Structures are given as structure tokens and as C-alpha cells.
Amino acid sequence: MKLIYTFLVLVISYQISIAQDIPNPGFENWSNPNGYNVPQGWATLNDATSEVNIFTCTQGTPGNPGDYYLKLTSRNISGFGIIPGIAVSGALDVTTFEPLSGFAYTQRPLALTGSWQYMGMSANDIGYVSITLTKWDDVNSVSIPIGAGNANLTGMEMSWVNFSIPINYTSDLFPDSCMIVMSASGASPANNSFLYVDHLAFELPAGVDEQHSDVKFNAFPNPFNDQITINMPHENWIDQLTIIDQTGSIVYQAENTRKINFDLHELPTGIYFIQINSDGIVSRQKLLKQ
Fold first, then answer.
1. What is the CATH number of domain 218-289?
2. How far is 282 from 9, CA to CA, in rounded Å?
3. What b-and-e string marks burial along 164-182, b requiring 16 or more CB atoms within 10 Å of the CB?
4. What residues does each domain of the chain span?
5. Which of 155, 181, 232, 276 fits 236 for a cystine, CB–CB 3.0-4.6 Å?
6. What is the pLDDT of residues 149-171, one digit of tens each?
7. How far, in Å, CA of 230 to CA of 226, rounded?
8. Using CA atoms, how far apart are residues 268 and 224, in angstroms rounded to an integer?
9. Which CATH homologous superfamily contains domain 30-203?
């Protein structure tokens, strides 16, 4: 039976000002739009293989932790060969198996962490997990590589094992997009090779909080030389103001203040994050010191 491939183009906006989390990182959220389960926020090849009632991505239970986890299994389909078990945090071309785009993200994490089980059904079938951070260049209309990490799945892990994939940076810029690709097979797929994944997260530099709200304040001028002024809505009390450098180190901190002008002339030139905790709401903004 001929497979009918369908592809929905996801339009990604690069006008991003705040970070977002990994989509559905614990794989607890699944939908069933066409009679089979798919993990929300992740593209798979299930749409391509569903016509012959074979699925390379399925829902595993129990999770580690939680109720569910992601099961990727490479499957042999008559007339088409072995289809890899693959999932992409964004868009995936189901005809070429090539990842196309990711999700909005503006941090510089140290590593991608999680837990996995895997096994290649042949010595030549090496699965992988990769992460790519990029930034859109409006002038040249291309994505600029910012950082990347990769882990090849050799040997086997038959019980849940925690992993950490370091991210290496090739640019001092901050990204606006992140793409995570997980595949049970590599260039030489073998039938029934599998990769189980759960509990994805980013390891961030000390002092950088992944969870934060929309920006509720404005720090200006930006870029600045010596001083910044904080414009808070409704004259909110600042419970804590923290300035963090690119390594995650805290370089300035003030607590319990209504002060709006801050002298930062001693800070060296570079990129910083200013983080304000006010009435239980944590907001962040990027600053450039000239």
C-alpha cells in the first residue's frame, strides 16, 4: 500500500522576546486527532505510517517520573524499508525525515538533561539525541548557529538512566530558537531499534531561572553605560533585583527597595540579564553594557 505523506508547515516567528520551556518535556500530554496518539508539541512520522497501521512513536507507561514517556521504535514497512523512530520539538519533513524547525527559546543552557532507555538492533544502528540553538538573521534571512550538543546511542541501556548532553557554543549571541531531535536510529536503521525518553529539562547557569513571566518592567537605557533606570508599573515594590552575567554569576543584587536608579559603572562591557521579583512575579530582561 502506498503511503500518503502529509506535511503541515509551521510558521515560526523570530520576533521573540522571552524564553519558553521545552514543549511537553515529560510527555504527559498526548492528543488523538486521527485515531492514534501523538505527543503534543512534537513532530513524528506517525502521520506517514498510520495508513498501514504502524507507528514509530507511541505512548509508554508508567513514566519516569509521571504517567507516560515517549517510545520511539524504528519499524520495517513493506515496500518502504525501515522507517526510523524519530521525534522533533517542532516541525519534521515526513518525506525526507529531515527536521525543519524548533520552538522559541532565548536562554543559553549548559546542557540538555533527562532519562532514557535505548538499544540498537544492529551494531551499525546508532541512534542519537541532538540539540541545536540558532538565531534568525533578518539581514541575510538565515539562521545563525549559536550552540549545539549531541549524544550517540551506542551499546544499550535497558533500564532508566539519567543523561546530560553538554551544549557547546560557537557564538556569544543569545538564540531565539531551539530544536531537539531524538531518533532511535541513525544512518543505518535496523528494525525494532528503540529509544525511550522522559523528563527532559535544561541545565541552566546558576542564578538563571527557567520559569519566568512576561516582562513586567522596563530597564533603560539599553544599551547603557553607567546607570540604568527601572520603570515599574504602578510603582511596585521590588522584592529582589538581580543582575546576572552570561556565565550565570550574580554581579549585582538589591532587595526590598523602591529605588529606580542603579549605578552599574563597575560592570565590564557585555551582555547581562536583569531579573526582578515583585509580588511573587519573576520578570527578566536582557541588557547590553557598552
1. 2.60.40.1930
2. 34
3. ebebebeeebbbbbbbbbb
4. 30-203, 218-289
5. 232
6. 999 999 999 999 999 999 999 98
7. 14
8. 11
9. BT2081, beta-jelly-roll domain (2.60.120.890)
